TrEMBL record:
Top-level taxon in the UniProt lineage: Eukaryota
InterPro entries documented for this protein: FAD/NAD-bd_sf, GDP_dissociation_inhibitor, RabGDI
Any one GO MF annotation of this record: Rab GDP-dissociation inhibitor activity
Gene Ontology CC terms: cytoplasm
Name by which UniProt lists this protein: Rab GDP dissociation inhibitor
Species assigned in the record: Stygiella incarcerata
């Protein structure tokens, strides 16, 4: 392994694999290592045997769930926004050739003990059960404004100088409507956005709408065989452009020169030289800080859930105020149609930011919607962010995966890492105008 590389990447989570692929495409000589013997890290999809060994040790008889290889269980539940940044990266790198996607059929919000379809367009707003008829008219006008808004064109509202609360006030939008628009459409995790500039929230609302328009059912898509297919696809991309992958490689130390700049990585007594190191927080425990914890519960169910319109895959957002919390609860459900479990089963994952000393209890409102649950496992993980931007010593650290239900924050982290490493933002000028290739959608 005594060889010199431009970049050494540690960990095979989605963030690291995307960066590895982008850097390889950009002409960098990349070595990618992981202490695990499988791809994906925290964004892997596990078979049944792996899942029980990691999160339910001691359970001997798992045969009632069928064959282990028929399961591909995500640990970090997220969907892909059809018009979001990850799809732009997939299209830009042509990684879609390695993946097949299906539409996620439903997007729902929890209100007053019931599950409701999220209205995101003015026509849907006029039919929604979430609002009275006068509020439907106001909401429809607001959504029409959002649909027509273009950042680089004149606007009747002074968006750059308004807060989101002021914009809602201008359309006389009531608190209950603000709740589902802010949390289930703009996908904010708390109410802090109301006092912040309106422009980012308007763009979030537009992203949801544009994603919905791509395939017409929901704004989300999801890869066959689970999210673990995503890091593996980018690993293949890197390999095509000369990237080298090594699994099951323990990392002994990161090497630095006298000036404090990184010079290489030592594994099993051998050192690979490099100018840049990229890695997930688990490889740099002294160079990251905690941003709290996320609790997730992975559940197996074998029945349909009331209020979800018999969808095979869907998201439910439980806004914070509905259950007396500071953070929303996110729920994703994926069925056997996506090749993640045997026929008749579905994998449900609920997640939220931890607020108390009993994190498992914080997911109770979500889990109550899915009873009876045949099996479940709780996972509590600490979230980390780097202490510095990495430019001084050439060590660039990614962020942990948050509790949100989509990959937009992960994609932002990827693009930020790329810009810091390369010294310039990713050039999108060669991007195709479509999202996922038609041949990759079913």
């Amino acid at each position: 392994m005594d060889e010199e590389y431009d970049v050494i990447v540690l960990g095979t989570g989605l963030t690291e694999c995307v960066i590895s692929g982008l850097l390889s495409v950009s002409g960098k000589k990349v070595l990618h290592m992981d202490r695990n013997d499988y791809y994906g890290g925290k964004s892997a999809s596990l078979n049944l045997k792996q899942f029980f060994e990691m999160f339910k040790p001691g359970v001997e008889d798992i045969t009632k769930f069928g064959s282990s290889r028929d399961w591909n269980i995500d640990i970090v539940p997220k969907f892909v926004m059809a018009a979001g940044k990850l799809v732009r990266i997939l299209s830009f790198t042509k990684v879609t050739r390695y993946l097949d996607f299906l539409q996620v059929e439903g997007s729902f919000v929890y209100r007053a003990g019931k599950i409701h379809k999220v209205p995101s367009k003015n026509k849907e707003a006029r039919k929604s059960e979430l609002m009275g008829w006068l509020e439907k008219i106001r909401c429809a006008k607001f959504l029409s404004f959002v649909e027509d808004f273009e950042e680089d064109k004149p606007c009747k509202k002074p968006i750059p100088t308004m807060t989101m609360e002021q914009l809602f006030d201008d359309f006389s939008i009531k608190p209950d409507t603000r709740e589902f628009l802010g949390h289930a459409v703009a996908l904010h995790t708390s109410d802090d956005y109301l006092l912040q500039p309106a422009l980012p929230s308007v763009l979030r609302l537009k992203l949801y709408n544009e994603s919905l328009e791509r395939y017409g059912v929901s704004p989300y898509i999801y890869p066959l065989y689970g999210l673990g297919e995503l890091p593996q696809a980018f690993a293949r991309l890197s390999a095509v452009y000369g990237g080298t992958y090594m699994l099951n490689k323990p990392i002994d130390s990161i090497e630095y020169d006298e000036a404090g700049h990184v010079t290489g990585v030592t594994s099993s007594g051998e050192t690979a030289r490099c100018k840049i190191v990229v890695g997930d927080p688990s490889y740099f425990t002294k160079r990251v800080k905690s941003e709290g914890h996320v609790v997730r519960c992975v559940c197996f169910i074998n029945h349909k859930v009331e209020g979800t319109l018999d969808a095979e895959a869907y998201q439910i957002i439980i806004p914070q105020n509905q259950v007396g919390r500071k953070h929303d609860i996110y729920v994703s459900c994926i069925s056997s149609k996506f090749n993640v479990c045997p026929a008749g089963w579905s994998v449900v994952i609920a997640s939220t930011t931890v607020e108390t000393e009993t994190p498992e209890a914080e997911l109770a409102p979500a889990l109550a919607l899915f009873e009876p649950i045949q099996e479940k496992a709780f996972i509590v993980e600490e979230c980390f962010v780097p202490l510095d931007d990495g430019k001084k010593d050439g060590v660039f650290i990614s962020k942990s995966y948050d509790a949100t239900s989509h990959f937009e924050s992960t994609s932002d982290d990827v693009l930020s890492l790329y810009e810091r490493i390369m010294g310039e933002p990713l050039d999108w000028t060669a991007l195709p105008t479509t999202s996922v290739d038609d041949d990759d959608m079913e």
